[in-house]
């Protein structure tokens, strides 16, 4: 019995990541191992990897502009104002459970808005979270819980709400590919199809809050946390030293909101996150919030902010291209069909499991859908699944593995904000907790959706 090259590559990549090998190296080594096992040879494997990297150039530019837009928002003082409101309540002695849960709700809402309302994706995390770390430490909040809070909003929103990134995932990618594979999509409601899987994500979130990470966890008070905290407090005090300063602060906040709306509208009408970020940044420059002489440094700071995440995502594109070049994604799925024996329950479970493996390796649910849709649609039709159940299976199979993948921005983003003081490990504190709390319930509730729809 031969080992599937895609499965081996994913296992190697995950194993190396768990062994604390850098994600970029883990992706590269996993891709080479998979390419060699599939018989591509080292030259063809590296060529495919390089082709994938070239295809990721657009991702890198989008992330750079996202970072610049996010830094411009920070320049306006909006994130500091949000963090300052929380810190002020805590510094005044407000450490009650109500404040803690309001903070949790705020983090979830912000991560949700970053997908649909404020199209800055994960760029808000390294700006908003570091100033709050000292507050988290005082309340002894487990940062693994914070990672779960952020990842919930980043993933659930696009897989359930068809606006912003959700429109891209649900309508432009999933429904488009399902329709091209032979299913009439005119009467399909993606929200109805994905409601049960989204409920699984909610169950995972509640489990993380009230069971897994409800106990206090101690962290060291380090200089980085205090500096970020003090900077927010100083900014809040400065904005209130005079009526003019307070008015100026409010004006910048309004401009920031206008820039956010502009970016959202442009992204909505052009289907381009890159253009949305660019127009949003232009609003800051046109209104003087970001002065012309400061634009270069703000833009550079934004690139630095998102550089590592963008680089990992580009490398993941190279990994994905090698997996496609092996030609063994389809055999992996076809081999699994031998286990079905016409059994819909087993078929649904295996299809979802394959989606988990593929997405964990590629690191992008958006890239997984085109791979699985062409194969899953005729398979689901032959097994008698309804069009709604088919959409639920494919949508869930694509989202599975996004939370919990070392190369996914849904885990890289939270780590970028929570690990500024070196006390939050990417694999053990972001990847493993989100895998347990979201992939397992999503697999279970996706299977339920396939059975009942």
How much of the polypeptide forms β-strand, as a percent range?
under 5%
Order of helices and strands: HHHHHHHHHHHHHHHHHHHHH
- Please estimate the helix content: over 70%
Q: What are the segments in which pLDDT stays under 50 over at least 5 consecutive residues?
A: 241-245
Explain how this protein is built.
The protein is mostly helical and 453 residues long. It has one domain (5-214, 226-452). It is 78% helix and 0% strand. It has 21 helices and no strands. Helix 6 packs parallel to helix 9 and helix 9 (143-160) packs antiparallel against helix 20 (409-418). It is globular and about 65 Å long. 54% of the residues are buried.
Give a brief description.
With 453 residues, the chain is mostly helical.
List keywords for this structure.
453 residues; mainly alpha; 21 helices
Q: Any chance you could write out the topology, listing elements then pairs?
A:
Layout lengths: L4 H14 L4 H15 L3 H15 L1 H20 L1 H14 L5 H20 L8 H4 L4 H6 L4 H18 L4 H16 L9 H23 L10 H16 L4 H28 L2 H14 L5 H35 L2 H9 L6 H19 L2 H19 L3 H13 L9 H10 L7 H27 L1
Helix pairs in contact: 1-2, 1-17, 2-3, 2-15, 3-15, 4-14, 4-15, 5-12, 6-9, 9-10, 9-11, 9-20, 9-21, 10-18, 11-19, 11-21, 13-14, 16-17, 17-18, 17-19, 17-21, 18-19, 19-21, 20-21
């Amino acid at each position: 019995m031969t080992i599937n090259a895609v499965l081996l590559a994913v296992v190697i990549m995950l194993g190396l990541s768990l062994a604390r090998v850098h994600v970029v190296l883990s992706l590269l080594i996993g891709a080479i191992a998979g390419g060699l096992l599939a018989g591509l040879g080292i030259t063809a494997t590296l060529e495919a990897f390089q082709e994938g990297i070239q295809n990721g150039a657009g991702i890198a530019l989008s992330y750079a502009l996202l970072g610049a837009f996010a830094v411009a928002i920070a320049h306006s003082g909006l994130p500091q104002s949000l963090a300052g409101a929380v810190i002020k309540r805590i510094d005044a002695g407000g450490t009650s459970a109500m404040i803690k849960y309001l903070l949790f709700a705020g983090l979830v809402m912000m991560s949700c808005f970053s997908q649909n309302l404020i199209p800055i994706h994960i760029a808000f995390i390294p700006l908003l979270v570091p100033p709050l770390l000292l507050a988290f430490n005082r309340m002894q909040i487990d940062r693994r819980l914070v990672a779960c809070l952020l990842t919930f909003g980043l993933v659930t929103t696009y897989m359930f709400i068809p606006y912003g990134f959700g429109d891209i995932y649900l309508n432009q990618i999933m429904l488009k590919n399902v329709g091209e594979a032979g299913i009439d999509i005119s009467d399909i409601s993606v929200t109805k199809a994905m409601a049960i899987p989204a409920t699984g994500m909610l169950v995972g979130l509640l489990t993380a809050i009230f069971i897994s990470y409800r106990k206090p966890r101690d962290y060291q008070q380090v200089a980085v946390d205090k500096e970020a905290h003090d900077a927010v407090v100083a900014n809040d005090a400065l904005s209130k030293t005079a009526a003019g300063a307070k008015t100026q602060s409010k004006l910048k906040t309004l401009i920031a909101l206008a820039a956010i709306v502009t970016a959202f509208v442009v992204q909505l009408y052009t289907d381009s996150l890159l253009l949305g970020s660019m127009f949003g940044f232009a609003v800051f420059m046109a209104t003087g919030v970001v002065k012309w002489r400061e634009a270069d440094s703000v833009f550079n700071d934004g690139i630095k902010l998102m550089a590592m995440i963008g680089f990992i995502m580009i490398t993941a594109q190279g990994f994905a291209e090698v997996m496609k070049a092996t030609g063994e994604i389809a055999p992996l799925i076809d081999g699994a069909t031998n286990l079905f024996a016409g059994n819909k329950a087993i078929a649904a479970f295996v299809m979802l499991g394959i989606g988990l493996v593929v997405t964990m390796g590629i690191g992008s649910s958006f890239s997984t859908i085109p791979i699985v849709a062409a194969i899953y649609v005729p398979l689901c039709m032959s097994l008698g699944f309804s069009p709604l159940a088919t959409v639920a299976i494919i949508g869930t199979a694509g989202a599975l593995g996004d939370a919990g993948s070392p190369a996914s921005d849904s885990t890289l983003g939270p780590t970028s904000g929570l690990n500024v003081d070196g006390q939050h490990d990417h694999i053990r504190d972001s990847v493993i907790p989100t895998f347990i709390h979201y992939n397992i319930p999503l697999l279970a509730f996706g299977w339920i959706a396939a059975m009942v729809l």
